[in-house]
Amino acid sequence: MKYLSTFEVAEKWGISPRRVGILCNNDRIPGAQRAGSRWIIPEDAEKPTDARIKSGKYIKQKTDRGEEA
């Protein structure tokens, strides 16, 4: 099985390497392992859903003038 670094996974998923590390630390990426001080992630691992938003949608959207709709 091939493993990727947090930087490679971050580029693949379009998020920051820090966010990938946080997801690994919170056991959100199955198969992620610690290799010394770094995380290694299986190549076939899928990006976890964003648990910060329960419905998957933002409730309040900002208008182009910065006011809430």
Poorly predicted residue ranges: none
Largest sheet: 3 strands, antiparallel
**Content of β-strand:** 15-25%
Order of helices and strands: EHHEE
Share in helix: 10-25%
Strand line-up in the sheet with most strands: 1-3-2
Number of helices: 2
| End-to-end CA span | 48 Å
> How many runs of DSSP E, i.e. beta strands?
3
Provide a descriptive summary of the structure in words.
This is DNA-binding protein. One of its GO terms (molecular function) is DNA binding. Residues 45-69 are annotated as: Disordered. Keywords: DNA-binding. The structure is a single chain. With 69 residues, the protein is of the alpha+beta class. The chain has a domain at 3-42. It contains two helices and three strands; from the N terminus they run βααββ. Helix 1 (6-13) packs across helix 2. The longest helix is centred in the N-terminal third of the chain and has 9 residues, at 17-25. The mean pLDDT is 86.
Q: How are the SSEs placed, and which strands pair?
A:
Blueprint: E1 3-5, H1 6-13, H2 17-25, E2 33-35, E3 38-42
Antiparallel strand pairs: 1-3, 2-3
Helix pairs in contact: 1-2
Summarize the structure.
This protein has 69 residues and is α+β, with helices and mostly antiparallel strands. It is 25% helix and 16% strand. It is built from 2 helices and 3 strands; from the N terminus they run βααββ.
Supply the key terms:
69 residues; alpha+beta; 2 helices; 16% strand
